[in-house]
Amino acid sequence: MLKRVAVESAAEAYLELLAARGIEHFFGNAGTDFAPIVEAYAKRLAQGTPLPRPMTVPHEVTAVAMAHAREVLAELLETLEYSDPPRAPRNSATVAEAAAIAEAARTLADARNPLIIAKAPGRDPAAVAPLVRLAEALGAPHFDHWPTHVNFPQQHPLHAGYDPAPYLAEADVILAVESDVPWIPKLAAPRPEAKVTWPGSRGASGTSWTRAPSW
Question: Is there a contact between 193 and 175 (Cβ–Cβ < 8 Å)?
């Protein structure tokens, strides 16, 4: 389900989406490009809107993402649309919860048109064979999207290439394995009702079947 809210800038949209996704703290290293964030915070505070608690971090190594140029935050916007509730599952405990794994298994088993996107599960060579078996059991095409490791045999008939974008709109369930950016919404994205299962050991993930997750 899509939720639409009125916003005036990309910075407002950014804070709105962070709050909607349950982010509790916002760590920032304020610079010359930070004015839109400050204005967005001031507006949300005046409106009594829930927001991530701002935490000023003077050392930019700690808040390195905010040290990058972010003039895009000042871009004028009128509305923001995002999935509510989010398609990606809530993070489970550091050790994957049995219930979370079972839910992911049911979602995949019920899928009519699943696909798999992977970037780095092959950093653990032992994870490759189980991923192949899963793809075979589901009949799901596998895409190596910006891969950093050998994740799936390229000669395997289910290896579908390196660009899942043309197929996202057709998928009803997406398994994004160790993938920090499985798609770029501005270019292509799944349909709103599609479900996403996001296992991984770091980055943004829900549950991990081979390692402990941190995203």
Answer: no
How many Cβ atoms sit within 10 Å of the Cβ of residue 211? 17
Render pLDDT for 29-79 as a digit per residue (tens, 0 to 9): 777 778 899 999 999 889 888 778 888 877 655 555 554 556 566 778 888
Tokens representing 126? 């032992």
Q: How far apart are CA 207 and CA 107, in angstroms?
A: 13
CA 90 – CA 211 distance, rounded (Å): 17
Q: Which domains does the chain have, with CATH numbers?
A: 2-83 (no CATH), 98-197 (3.40.50.1220)
DSSP 146: S
- Measured distance CA(201)–CA(61) in Å, rounded: 22
